[in-house]
Write a structure and sequence with these properties.
Layout: H1 2-39, H2 44-52, H3 58-72, H4 77-93, H5 97-113, H6 117-134, H7 137-153, H8 157-173, H9 181-193, H10 197-213, H11 217-233, H12 237-254, H13 257-273, H14 277-293, H15 297-313, H16 317-334, H17 337-353, H18 357-449, H19 455-510, H20 512-528, H21 534-566, E1 573-577, H22 578-596, E2 599-602, E3 609-613, H23 614-630, E4 637-645, E5 648-655, H24 662-665, H25 688-699, E6 704-709, E7 713-721
Parallel strand pairs: 2-4
Antiparallel strand pairs: 1-3, 4-5, 5-7, 6-7
Helix pairs in contact: 2-3, 3-4, 4-5, 5-6, 5-7, 6-7, 7-8, 7-9, 8-9, 9-10, 9-11, 10-11, 11-12, 12-13, 13-14, 13-15, 14-15, 15-16, 15-17, 16-17, 17-18, 20-21, 21-25, 22-23, 23-25
Length: 725
């Protein structure tokens, strides 16, 4: 009967699985056909036909628009943007996440080429959000690079470097050396803008090496162009000419008209500096033809202005005036304020050379008026940029908060779902148990009724009773184990309560005295301010500073100790120059040392490096130096030294103070005692400092030791791993 009821179910399941495999196969076949059909469409005319027809699949039309956008991006950027936006709409409609992210990034790049940095930034940010949702690390790294370029062009070099370094980190995570080439190139551009030519050349050559390794033809063109610019700025014109020609050759083979014109403009400027005016004019006129062909009017305005400078240099004032005025006209149409200002200035200088002083004066007035207005507009633009940066940061923070809130909501929902399922399972088990108990009860009654006739059943029942007894013994052992665990937990709780009581004792006792001193000093200042002499005021201020310093040091140690007990302190080791850490701490304690007339001596060598956590190492030295000052007599010394020892660096803090007895040394590192004594000027400590030192030294793989003699002083030594020099 069982097989007869289950067999039809297996047949139905087998049919469902068969149909599923058929559907999956059809979907795969359909996808491969689409890919094959689209892969065959390579010509621009064919792609245009695809986007015009309505009967094609959405994915085919989307891909055609995106391909057209990439085809037109070098020659017709505005037309490319229209195609990209249409493809983006289809991708978002069909929830093609990665494709939508790439389309957003491409549109941002096109707006960047058109110098519309605000729109470019918006599209890059949106693309970054999409890549973040899709988990595309490479896409996110490219977006960070693009945003870094925008900030660099706006003069925000620190923000630009921040984004480029984040991009490099992501490329390292995905082990993509090829993709990091553009980031090295962009960092080189930043150093070029800042005038650091050595650093700029280093990063551009690093980028060029990567591009040569992966045969990145386009990228090599950019690298050669940038290296030529560096050599031109350094006055090495022949090497600059060689690099520019290499870049021009590559860009002519690629057919990137905009970059061809840009490189020619660089070459023309170089010939102008070399006073080869004929070659400069020839190249600049070729640039004009290219910029007119691709409708790059900003380039036209700039090249006409350079031609005006060239003709002015050779004394052809008539042609110079014509080119300046043409550049001025285009600049006014495009509202290029800086170029308008430069043209007015150049025309003023030109008319002065030709002794047309009236027109020279008029253009000089226009130049000065526009210079002032540009300065005001530039200031307003900077303020707007800062506001935009602040608002974008707030939006990023808000998005992160929303993500965290969403994650918390999901976790709460998951917790509720698991709790509900647990309750349902518990209820089901209880019902099953009740049913089992009921049937067992019926069976027990029946067994009692047939007890006399079925001795075999009695024997079986006795056997079951023995098994139950064994299970009871096992259960009893489990209960005993649980009791042991409960007792251990009770002991832990008692220790925790003792530690808590000790902390409250420290807070109530050790904070009370300095706080009472502060209150006393403030009341004296309030009551007798006019009656106190300058020396008395200085003495009160010194005592007040000492009390505040003690409270601050105690609170720092309390917070660090509590974080160590809860495991909330992260360990981030790095290479540290030991002398810098010691110098910072000496600067911190120099007022206390001067007050007690104690000399701080640093005997560490300047090249010694350790590998450790910055905060932990700083805390260790701060507490050891503080203790040495506390227990040293006036006129004494606190000496910090270091040496290499078995692959570690051993740091020693020695004082000439009161010393520590052997009995007290055994109490120093016990958390249940928190031993502390008064300093030479009745300074009181909490006993937590040395516990923190031991905890942080051990966390970093080292050891802490002490050598001390009564009335001769103490030496506290700790070891840290040696950093590679």
């Amino acid at each position: 009967m069982f097989y007869s009821s289950v067999l039809p179910m297996f047949r139905i399941l087998r049919m469902v699985l068969s149909l599923s495999f058929i559907i999956i196969g059809l979907l795969q076949l359909h996808g491969s056909v689409l890919y094959t059909n689209l892969g065959g469409i390579n010509q621009t005319d064919s792609l245009v036909e695809v986007v015009k027809e309505r009967f094609y699949d959405d994915s085919l039309i989307m891909d055609a628009h995106l391909r057209l956008g990439r085809i037109y991006r070098m020659t017709e950027p505005k037309r490319a943007i229209d195609h990209m936006k249409t493809g983006l709409d289809i991708a978002e409609k069909n929830q093609f996440g990665c494709i939508a992210g790439k389309a957003l990034a491409d549109i941002g790049a096109l707006y960047w080429r058109l110098s519309n940095f605000n729109l470019a930034f918006d599209f890059f940010i949106e693309a970054g959000h999409v890549f973040d949702q899709e988990g595309d690390l490479a896409g996110n790294a490219r977006i960070l690079t693009s945003i870094g370029v925008i900030f660099s062009q706006q003069g925000h070099y620190d923000r630009a470097l921040e984004y480029h370094l984040q991009a490099l980190e992501l490329f390292e995570d995905i082990d993509s050396l090829a993709l990091s080439a553009s980031v090295h190139n962009n960092i080189g551009m930043i150093y070029l803008e800042k005038g650091d030519y050595d650093q700029a050349e280093y990063y551009h050559r690093k980028s060029l090496e990567i591009k040569k390794t992966y045969d990145d033809f386009t990228g090599k063109g950019f690298s050669y162009n940038n290296l030529g610019t560096i050599r031109k700025q350094q006055g090495e014109f022949e090497e600059a000419l060689e690099y520019f020609n290499k870049s021009l050759t590559i860009r002519q083979e690629i057919g990137d008209n905009l970059q061809i014109a840009n490189t020619m403009s660089n070459l023309a400027n170089l010939y102008f500096l070399k006073q080869d005016y004929g070659q400069a004019v020839e190249l600049l006129k070729l640039c004009l033809a290219i910029y007119e062909e691709i409708d790059q009017r900003a380039g036209l305005a700039n090249v006409n202005h350079i031609l005006g400078k060239v003709y002015a240099a050779i004394g052809d004032y008539e042609n110079s005036q014509s080119y300046y005025e043409l550049s001025l006209s285009i600049s006014k149409q495009l509202n290029l304020a800086n170029l308008i200002r430069n043209n007015y200035k150049s025309l003023s200088e030109l008319f002065a050379l030709s002794r047309n002083y009236r027109r020279a004066y008029d253009n000089q007035l226009k130049y000065l008026a526009l210079r002032d207005s540009i300065y005001d507009a530039e200031s307003a633009r900077r303020v707007a940029e800062l506001r935009f940066l602040h608002e974008s940061k707030l939006k990023e923070n808000e998005l992160q908060l929303l993500r965290k809130s969403s994650q918390i909501t999901e976790l709460n929902y998951e917790k509720q779902r698991l709790f509900r399922n647990f309750l349902l399972l518990l209820i089901f088990l209880i019902l099953v148990t009740l049913v089992v108990i009921y049937f067992r009860f019926l069976e027990y009654k029946k067994t009692n009724a047939l007890l006399k006739k079925q001795k075999e059943e009695i024997a079986a029942s006795n056997k079951k009773l023995k098994e139950l007894n064994l299970s009871l013994f096992e259960h009893q052992e489990k209960v005993e184990n649980l009791n042991k665990k409960l007792k251990e937990s009770e002991r832990n709780l008692i220790n925790i309560n003792k530690t808590k009581d000790k902390f409250f004792s420290i807070i109530s006792h050790d904070l009370r005295n300095p706080l009472a001193g502060i209150i006393s000093f403030s009341r004296i200042l309030k009551r007798d301010f006019d009656m106190l002499s300058k020396e008395e005021l200085l003495e009160l201020a010194s005592d007040l500073d000492t009390s505040v310093f003690r409270i601050n040091n105690l609170l720092d140690n309390l917070l660090l100790w509590s974080r160590t007990q809860t495991g909330k302190i992260s360990f981030k080791p790095e290479k540290l120059l030991l002398k810098e850490v010691i110098t910072e701490n000496f600067e911190l304690f120099s007022p206390n040392a001067r007050q007690k007339q104690i000399e701080l001596v640093d005997k560490t060598e300047s090249h010694l490096m350790v590998y450790g956590d910055t905060n932990m190492t700083d805390t260790i030295l701060r507490n050891l130096i503080s203790n040495a000052l506390k227990y040293s007599h006036p006129g004494g010394k606190v000496i910090v030294s270091a040496k290499e020892k078995n692959g570690f660096i051993e740091v020693s803090v020695a004082d000439t103070g009161i010393g520590i007895s052997e009995q007290d040394q055994n109490k120093l590192f016990r958390s249940d005692i928190l031993h502390s004594t008064y300093g030479t000027k009745d300074e009181k400590g909490s006993g937590l400092g040395l516990l923190l030192c031991r905890e942080f030294v051990q966390r970093q793989g080292g050891n802490l030791s002490i050598k001390s003699e009564i009335n001769k002083g103490s030496v506290f030594s700790f070891t840290l791993p040696r950093g590679n020099s």
